[in-house]
Amino acid sequence: MTETVIRALGESDAHLFDTLPDPLGVGRALSRATHRPDWKRVALRDGKVVARAAWWGGPDDESPVNVNWFDIAEGEEEAGAELLRTSPFQVEYELILPAGWRDDAAARAAGEARMRAAKAAGMEVLVERYQYRWTPDCGLPERPGRLVFRPEPDDAVFFDALRRIHSVTLDAHALRAVAEGGLDKAAQEELDFFNWCPSPREWWQLARTPDGDLVGIHIPARNPSGPCVGFIGVVPEHRGRGYAYDLLAECTHFLAERGAEFIAGSTDQGNVPMAANFTKAGHPVVQERVHFVPAPRN
């Protein structure tokens, strides 16, 4: 077999990226995202693209946040693995899949091929997640009216709330951060994300009972692709009362009142209570995503 050549693309040859089929519709799913030409890499054999990957980040990021577009030609899993393995960007891989992809033979075959290639590149599955997309046609969820929502200018208050929220959590990314650096690391990663979003800091809100007891936080946000549910979290002592729905309903209203034509959201598939709250609030599942992380190196 002819040797595989792996290289980065630039402005002059960025068109090569578009020479592979897109069986999972990733290009359509990422239509609002911008991929820099120099963060795209391809694997070529006899001048033909047999694998491709595009890394993504915010407009001001100096390095990518993740790789969210990865395709391989039929029978080219090893070329795809080598493309990921040799990349200078060893970051999370977010495999974007249609909702219910395992029930569709073609989507399942394409998804599983990419999963095998990622694992061969030394990556491991962290979590599978549901991706939601609310639009005005879905209707606004009812506000239960049980909580009082207010902004809070002090980051330390949010940091403390996040530590409490992540002391008992089902979120795989938070659990990974806790395992690596404790509750402080998990809380700081969330704050870093909130600050990374281009939406106003004044949007961050605390939720309290009418008598002032902290229940949780919600973060209406805009990421580089548009409006999103940045974070929903309830402190452990107030769980079991359905307050996550109250937070999500308020977040939805908050963004809709500011002209959002859609609102993206996501949760781990294993977080059954939060998935049920998205459904109750009228946010339909539009995609599934499998998150891979580079395996720890000894």
From TrEMBL:
Organism: Streptomyces kurssanovii
Protein name listed in UniProt: GNAT family N-acetyltransferase
Lineage: superkingdom: Bacteria
Domain annotation N-acetyltransferase: ranges: 163-298
PROSITE patterns: GNAT
